[in-house]
Design brief:
Blueprint (H helix, E strand, L loop, with lengths): L8 E8 L20 E7 L7 H5 L3 H15 L4
Amino acid sequence: PAGAGVPCLVAVGSWGPCVPARTSGPPGRCYPAEGGCGEWRVLDRRGRPAPWLERKLTEAERARIDDVVFDVMENRL
């Protein structure tokens, strides 16, 4: 059924906070956004690494996890 899956946890191992772009002022003082990325891994329900489960993730699932991790780490959720 839709929404059925293997229960798991996602642990963030490292995170570089997002630094917004500066786009006003003299060109020498403008810069692009940086950061807002890190590494995460999938754990089983007991908090143990679950590489077997991580290998089963689709690209869409990975993208969704990336989005949720970004929102949580940047205090958007």
